[in-house]
Structure prediction request, 770 residues.
Amino acid sequence: MGYRKVAIVAAGMTKFMRRALETPKELAWQAAQAALDSAEMKLAQIDCVVFGSAPDVFDAVHMKGEYLADGCGGWRKPYLRCYVGGGTGVFAVAQGWLHVASGMFDTCLVVCEEKMSSCLPHPQGAFLTIFDNFTEQPLKPNLLWIFALEQNRYMHTYGITLEEIALVSVKNKRNALGHPCAQLGAELTVKDVLASEVMAWPVHRLMVSPTSDGAAAVVLAAEDVAKRVTDKPVWIEGVGWCIDTTYWTNRDLCYPRYVERAARMAYAMAGIREPRKEINIAEPYDPFAYKELHHLEGLQLAPKGQAPKLLADGVFDRDGDLPASPSGGLLGVGNPIAAAGTMKVCEVFWQLRGEAGARQVPGKPKRAVAQAWGDLMQVGTVVVVGV
Amino acid sequence: MTRVAIIGLGFTPARPTSAHQSYKEMMFEAAQRAYADASIEAAEIQSFVTCAEDLNEGLSIFDEYTPDQLGAALKPMHTLPQDGLHGIADAVMEIRSGLVELVVVEAHSKASNILTLDWIVDYATDPIYNRPLNLNPHYIAGLEMNRFLHVSRVTPEQCAAVVAKNRRNALRNPAAAYAAGLTNEHVLNSPYAFYPLHENELAETVDGCVVLVLASEARARRANSQPIWVRGVGWANAAFSLEARDWAQADYCRVAADIAYKQAGITAPAREIQVFEVDDTYAYKELQHLEALHVFANAGEAGRATEQGATELGGATPVNVSGGALGVGNALEATGLYRAAELVMQLRGQAGPRQVKAAKVGLAQSWRGVPTTSGAVVILSAD
Prediction:
């Protein structure tokens, strides 16, 4: 069936940094204003606001969505906070799509914000509270611990080496050198990555995205409004999301089947039959180096276990056949959780409009996919855009 | 636009404690009832929404813990840290966009697990300007009530009458936790909690879970149950900052109501709607919200109507015949869904001793409590 056409007409973001002096509300508003200004739009033209942010415990603000409402422009307007853990940043754009595609609103401002630095001594401590109270918390797990398990399983199943995974860090941190908002752009070698300290075997420090403060925003509009406010609308062609069982210990972690389901939902909407051929740019979620490879496989952009080979062949380089994370990804630009996902949507928006500056992918790309991942290695969220 | 209907309702009765059930078991029970009511299998459901706040659950990223007990594993599902009525709004958008035909909305409360709820609520206040005051956050309701009484000329007796009415109504509702035969004097003689708010004017928390099944018109026509149509949904936030808000009026509720009325084509709510389930987390809020909903010309009139019994069961404008939050209990994010559940029963004609005669159209409204200015409105009808 036909869906109401919805476009992204504007995008904006703050710099991503280890510790921002701005309050969460100020960060959210800076991103929202940057997006509105880029399309010369006023808040009065916005019908509704969608907000995304990850755990309240970072800021120690209960009902963080309510606290941030006015900072996001959600004043005397319909305002909704959505939340699927790390998958929030891309899901929020799908949530915005629902607002406009339902016919209930013509414009929607989507803002995602995260301020992790106020969590002391380190936000990693807050993640203890995401685990099951009875079966997991007594073990004092953290994210490095469970992602080390997953990376190990991925490497073991497909015979992948650490050098192959380290290449993701090298590529993304180099790509980030071209991003004016990036926190950790760097020129590194595989040797540098493998020489960095082991956080939890086999995860090395340079394979992990940083903790960050920042915000990102996009403006969505129905077809008639979109054509009025911009000459270059970027259409949302597909959205998809999927959650897997809570019991992650019962799943085979070698493959993210929930990402596959979410991707297939979005591709079906977009009429994509052969993603590998029909998608020009991918922004897969890369909080850890192996995750980019894992997600490229879940997104059906590489056969299972084959993403490392394609990476080594240069397929995912900015000038490769299928550039992946040309923004610099979470490893390079930074990882203010929900905002990082929206940053990926901003990136594909700029890339398809030819506005990505030093990061521009050559060859006039027509179609791109952004993806995020969250909860207990459990949620896939996907947005497909095209011009 | 595709019409949307509620075709399944399931809930557990609201109770002050629920030591016999975990929140997962509670969700499972309510979901089983809702799916049976709609005569559907979990496998048919295409999308799920749960409404929950991390700090109320005692877990970060509570979304992780939602899918299995609803049958949502490997399906589209997401969490809204909002009231359950926002969840209905989300489901309506999912269906109207053409994405799915069958959506489940869930919200629950395990408030009895929270040892220090007021402290948790305190963490919702502005961390820079307000939290350093180190006050119990209900003071915001006391301040607001004071301003509201001053501007609206509503009397403390009229607020007390709201409590007496709602807790009396709850006597007819087996799902209510705080039914009581109170008089205005009982309420006014209870100590001040946060002047001028009396202890009995605060809704006390309950545990419970509500699950609704929503469907597109085409899917609803195939259902075995009587579909209850969603005629309008609206939601809005006003100023969060205490320093910038309107302390006398519930402007969030007015904006939300105007959106919902426009969708439903309702211009004279008091005449066109027969049942109102309105937020009464604090007694004065019912009167403030009735003004914002345009049910009465102003809150003063709502107060007088309450005193004269016009908002009782059998009156011209029945409000909170379920007992409201004062009678049923404050079920945190599920509070709005208990209001919507009551409407479904009323509009199906299944409300037993508290049935409103000739109830064709109903309105449910929620507010997310202090310190928020977040509200939602849902309008349902039998045809």
Remarks:
- The mean pLDDT of chain A is 97.
- Chain A touches chain B through 68 residues (CB under 8 Å).
- The radius of gyration of chain A is 19 Å.
